[in-house]
Input
Amino acid sequence: MKTQEYTVVGTRPIRHDGVDKVTGRALYGADFQMAGLLYGHILRSPHAHARIRRIDTSKAEQLPGVKAVVTAGDFPEVPERMVDLGEGDTPLSYARGNVLAKGKVLYKGHAIAAVAATSVHVAEEAAGLIEVDYEVLPCVLTAPEAMQDGAAILHDDLKTKEFGEQTGRVSNVAEHFRYAMGDIEAGFAQAEVMVEREFNTATVHQGYIEPHNATALWNNDGRILVWCSTQGSFSVRDVTACLLDVPVSRVRVTPMEIGGGFGGKIPVYLEPVAALLSKKTGKPVKIVMSRKDVFEGSGPTPGSHMKVKIGARKDGRITAAQAYLAYEAGAYPGAMVAPGAMCVFAAYDIANVVIDGFDVVVNKPSTAAYRAPGATNAAFAAESVVDEIAEKLGIDPLDFRLKNAAKEGTRRADGPKYRRIGCVEVIEAMKNHPHYTAPLGGPHRGRGVAIGFWFNVGLPSSCTISVSADGTVNLVEGSTDIGGTRTSIAMQAAEVLGIPAEDVHPTVVDTDSVGFTAVTGGSRTTFATGWAAYEAAQDVVRQMKERAAKIWETEAASVALDRGVFQSGDKRMTFQELAAKLDQTGGPVVGRGAVNPRGVGGSFSGCIADVEVDPETGKVTILRFTSVQDAGKAIHPSYVEGQMQGGSVQGIGWALNEEYFMNDAGSMTNSSLLDYRMPTALDLPMIDTVIVEVPNPGHPFGARGVGEANIVPPPGAIANAIYRAAGVRMNRLPMNPPAIMQAIWSQRD
Amino acid sequence: MHTKVRVQTTINGEPQEFLCEPRQSLLECLRDLLGLTGTKEGCNDGNCGACTVLMDDRVVTSCLVLGVEAQGCQITTIEGIARGSELHPLQRSFLENAALQCGICTPGFIVAAKALLDQQPNPSEDEIRLWLANNLCRCTGYDKIIRAVKQAAEQMQEVNA
Ligand code: FES
Ligand code: FES
Output
């Protein structure tokens, strides 16, 4: 696929923040230091479900070195309302209750109280001296369990919403919704083959290497200053202000470098607590989670219970598809089941569809987004069934997908019609890749494929660009750079200005210093903040043309900019030359861009996985892996590849090893990086990538977000590969050795 | 308060003295007492490698070493890898290969990879993967990290040839 040629867009400059990150100089949240700093520690619930009868903090307060202790009671009383937490509306009481539990603890690891002390060790010791009197309650840990009549109820005030209507029924099901299109009965009646299967997937964690952290100072002027590692400085500002009942302008959030997030660093856990401790002590307070806290007290991604049924004709056309998706939200509603439901059949053009989604609370940590949230679970189920149908029909799995692929004009069951999308192109690239036809080279080996979809979001972004006298520019933006977006944003400005990427100096600044910018999430940063930079650069160009016109005594409209050279008639001046003359022509040039773009284009992704299954142990080895994705236009191809490789490997971990291993009491028994086994360098082959470019008509350079779709297909592809290698269709994640051996043995019986 | 212990050591080639509590890890001493925050904490129990430093040319996870154990040792951290104003070939190849995304794991990988190349100038892909299996990266899928280490090895050999 050829797209338009550019000078900067599509090249691979060294990232602007690179040197600081390879020399150890870059400052991440936990690196923040300040005179008089106190250290915080959070006491967490040892029970999965219990009523808090009494909390006695007196012993903790008496320990030398302890400066303050806070509990939920220290939050101001605020009347209940809905608040936007950066990924949708939540009742304020839920947001606050997850930060410090009130009345009840809903999962093991639920924060109860916090201590500030002169050292982290003293704070930890003091937390151990807080006495909590619990009435332990029965717990529910999976969606099917929680949905049963008579199940232990997490929230006495949570009433089920059904098809948009309040039922008034108290249960653990926060919502049941349905997307439907066509006539499902008629669709299945036309089908000549039908497959219906049931799937379960475990809770998994995003696994970012940097634990959550926050430092807060409740300053003497009443302003609350926060330094933290977050995906969204403005949502930290807004949530902190909301829970502390102060106007947003009272809070300033400085985003430090962030060590991974994948969706898990959108929610706010520590900042309001650090602020409360700071208010009590008059000192800055830093809280850093331990790895165990990260597993037990942050937001993993939902486990799920799913059923998928697909029917097709012998000619290979799918006639109907039905899905039942019950996702475990954890302690509070919001399991991201709606995006899962929108994505489950999103790669296919199907006339008759019914999708039922259930958002179910259970006694596990409140879940958060994880890279294409909700879509990976659903695609594992759908792609397994699609593979089985293709096999029954004797059609090559990629040909079968091609026959049914979504294209421009296809309507999704949740309503929208696609604009120009690259689903077909992705499947074709998979077919044409030498990997697809290469010999497997040994027994117990198999190859599997799968495809997947993820939206992109737009949302507000702001950016300013000021021109320096030496012809470089300074770009100020508000999007946390989690994987090279300073550069992919700067490159879009450079392209407009006709200067090298290196001549744009991007800085991510605090919430006082730039216009509102939504979270780094939804694959939006390069797309939307890049667009803001594009607009700001256009603004600079407009002003620079006026300056050139002034010098040349002509009309600004007659001045053109081509590859960094301003021209009018036979007059020429480089960007650099003109930049040196700004003082004499009217003063500084500052461009601004503020956008809320609508032209989001979804991204499709596919992968080919070769595995070997050890028939004695059930261990799966990934032999070869190719990831294909439609990037629209790859702004910085190296970082697009990086997203594809990173997402693929997270998908491999999800497929094969990762899971919250819960005991019956609701305690996670593998809350360390030794036992929660994420892929290491030794577990993997190289991850080949193919970038497909079907330009997004809704973006100036045709870019689509690329951060997420790549995680969606791997579990399905690996399941399909395992089937070809070992003859067993897996219906659960992770597909670890015990699960595979069980499947092999039960087939032998 | 616990009585503090005086520790004399050499860090990145410079003699360094500090006072620490017996329970403080070397990681904590480096970060909180000496301001060397380039060494990162990902787990504090030896399982992520973000805190990797060299101790007398041995690769250690500094969260599992006590500060007092550094007495008399030569410690190398990420801050001591560049040669003055010139980046180490590994640092350059990490940049050129886009071998970092968030960058939190990068100091640990570069320190560990340096130790590998110091003792095995021409490692195979498998050797690199085995050596770096102590270091977790959640962003990159390792592909570009492995390539960066290979490229640095080649460049260092060319220079030495
Ligand atoms: S912090 Fe030392 S190994 Fe993770
Ligand atoms: S680059 Fe983020 S963990 Fe390695």
User: Anything to note?
Assistant: DSSP finds five helices and five strands in chain B. Residues B 41-44, 46-51, 61, 63 surround FE2/S2 (inorganic) cluster (ligand 1) (CB under 6 Å). The mean pLDDT of chain B is 96.
